[in-house]
Structures are given as structure tokens and as C-alpha cells.
Amino acid sequence: MTQAVQTVPSRWERFKQSDFLYYFKRDKVAMTSFTVFMVILVMSLASPLIAPHNPYDLSTIDIMDAELPPSWMEDGDATFPLGTDEQGRDILSTILYGSRLSLTIGFAAVGLQLLLGTVIGLSAGYFGGRVDSFLMRFADVQLSFSTMMVAIIVSAIFKASFGSEFFSQYAVLMLVVIIGIAEWPQYARTIRASVLAEKKKEYVEAARVMGFKAPRIMFRHILPNCLSPILVISTVQVANAIMSEAALSFLGLGLPVDQPSLGALISIGFKYIFSGAWWITAFPGLVLITLVLVINLLGDWLRDVFNPKIYKG
């Protein structure tokens, strides 16, 4: 008699049968938010291919096309569906390229926050004692300053020390570092709380008895069990990072004019909104609000899904 061979389901099959996907399919808000986010993400990544114009190519920009209204309005031009800005750049193209910059800064800044917060939070929660006290007091000091205050101070110092030209050349990298450094305590405190609960469990004691060193226990055993809160906070932090970049660009401390992000576009258009060129600010602002809204909605859904006590399906 031959025994039936049981096939191990693949990761994709396990994912299709998971509670995560089951609840996702039942939540219309989550599905809609994810769809809108993916549309914005794909369009921004494909901006060099689908954008009607290249806002970085100065040879294609004509100042005579400045402040043209959207194509459906009087004096509008079909070549510029959403109108043009004060330099004659196509608003739709600048939104697509600007979204890519904003998302790049948001994800990269969150990556830096995650790296710093994970290492500090794991160390504080696992070692405890003086290490925990020192790291958490340092995080408390960081949290006593608002993100915007830290970002404005650091941006101003870099501009004063190295000049506006240097800052403009490395503006994207500078914003990633500034926003990443300003927000890492959020991760550190969340991960520390999870580590304090996890390190008392039997699998951690078993790893110690087997002679595993602290770094392996922290990163190979404890960290995978802390991924749920990390995923939730990462979603929220991406939205916060995008808003921080937009606010800094609006204040003139973010990306330069020749690298249009959503915040820079809103800042440029705000100067002309009272002259009747409302579209320069309105359309980038609408995209920014939509992007942040859908990310926050996804973050709220993830928080509820990973907390079965409050999730009702």
C-alpha cells in the first residue's frame, strides 16, 4: 500500500489562504485605498514614459506658455491637460515627476528611521538597565522637539554651512537624512515595547541556553516577532515623511525649484493663486492629499487587522 505524498503548499498558496488576504478582500476601504496608492505609485515610477513633457528638459519649456489654464477652460491648450506653471512647465508632467520624488524621499526616509529605530529599540529592550535608560532618555529628548523644528534647524544649518548650491545638489539625500533622523524615536519606542514582552518568552530562554549570542537572538529570533507593529508604524511614517518633505519644500527648505516635488509645486503655485492661476497649487495639492489619505487609511486597516481584539472584519 502506497502512502499519499503530502505536498507542502508554496508561500503564494499560503498567502492566498491567509487571514490577511481574507480580511483585505472584505474591506472595501482598504481595497480602494490600496488601488489608488498603486495607481499613483506606478504612474510616478513610469513618469519618464507616460508624462507628456519632461519638466527637467529646459529646451522644451517655453516661457510664452506660462500660466496657461487647464485644457477644458477658455484659453486652455490641449497640449497641457492640467495647465502650466509660471515657467511654462506642464502641470501634469510636474505632478508625475514630483510624486516620484516625494515617494522616493518618503520611502528612503522611513528606511533610515527603521534602521536607526530597530537597532536602538532592540538594544534598549533586550539589554535593559543603563543601556535602556540612556537610549530612551535620548529618544525622549528627540521627541521633545517637533519633527518640523528639527528639520528646519538642520536644513538651515546645512544651507548656512555649505551654501545653497551644495544643498540643492544633494537636496534629496539631505531631506532623507533630516526626516529620517527626526523620526527614528517612533520606531525605537514601539520596538522596545515589543522586545520587553518577547524577551521573557521561552524561545528566547532556549536560545540563550543553546549559547546563541545577543545579536543573533535579537535579530534572528526576537525581531521577526515584532514585525506587525513595525509594518503598521511604517505605513503611517511614510505618510508623515511625505508631508514633512512637502512642508519643508513649501517653506523653501526642501527641494529646489528645478526639482519639483509635490510640496515645491504647491509652494510655487501659492504665489500665483490670488492672480487666478489656481491650478498650479490645486492639482498638486489634491494629489498630495489623496496620497497621504490612502496611506493613512491603509495604516489604520493594518493596525486593526494585526489587533484582533478590535478588528471586527
UniProtKB/TrEMBL annotation:
<dbReference type="Pfam" id="PF12911">
    <property type="entry name" value="OppC_N"/>
</dbReference>
<feature type="transmembrane region" description="Helical">
    <location>
        <begin position="277"/>
        <end position="299"/>
    </location>
</feature>
<dbReference type="InterPro" id="IPR025966">
    <property type="entry name" value="OppC_N"/>
</dbReference>
<dbReference type="InterPro" id="IPR035906">
    <property type="entry name" value="MetI-like_sf"/>
</dbReference>
<dbReference type="InterPro" id="IPR000515">
    <property type="entry name" value="MetI-like"/>
</dbReference>
<keyword id="KW-1133">Transmembrane helix</keyword>
<protein>
    <submittedName>
        <fullName>ABC transporter permease</fullName>
    </submittedName>
</protein>
<dbReference type="Pfam" id="PF00528">
    <property type="entry name" value="BPD_transp_1"/>
</dbReference>
<feature type="transmembrane region" description="Helical">
    <location>
        <begin position="166"/>
        <end position="184"/>
    </location>
</feature>
<dbReference type="InterPro" id="IPR050366">
    <property type="entry name" value="BP-dependent_transpt_permease"/>
</dbReference>
<dbReference type="GO" id="GO:0055085">
    <property type="term" value="P:transmembrane transport"/>
</dbReference>
<keyword id="KW-0812">Transmembrane</keyword>
<feature type="transmembrane region" description="Helical">
    <location>
        <begin position="222"/>
        <end position="243"/>
    </location>
</feature>
<feature type="transmembrane region" description="Helical">
    <location>
        <begin position="105"/>
        <end position="129"/>
    </location>
</feature>
<keyword id="KW-0472">Membrane</keyword>
<keyword id="KW-1003">Cell membrane</keyword>
<keyword id="KW-0813">Transport</keyword>
<comment type="similarity">
    <text>Belongs to the binding-protein-dependent transport system permease family.</text>
</comment>
<dbReference type="GO" id="GO:0005886">
    <property type="term" value="C:plasma membrane"/>
</dbReference>
<feature type="domain" description="ABC transmembrane type-1">
    <location>
        <begin position="99"/>
        <end position="299"/>
    </location>
</feature>
<feature type="transmembrane region" description="Helical">
    <location>
        <begin position="141"/>
        <end position="160"/>
    </location>
</feature>
<feature type="transmembrane region" description="Helical">
    <location>
        <begin position="29"/>
        <end position="50"/>
    </location>
</feature>
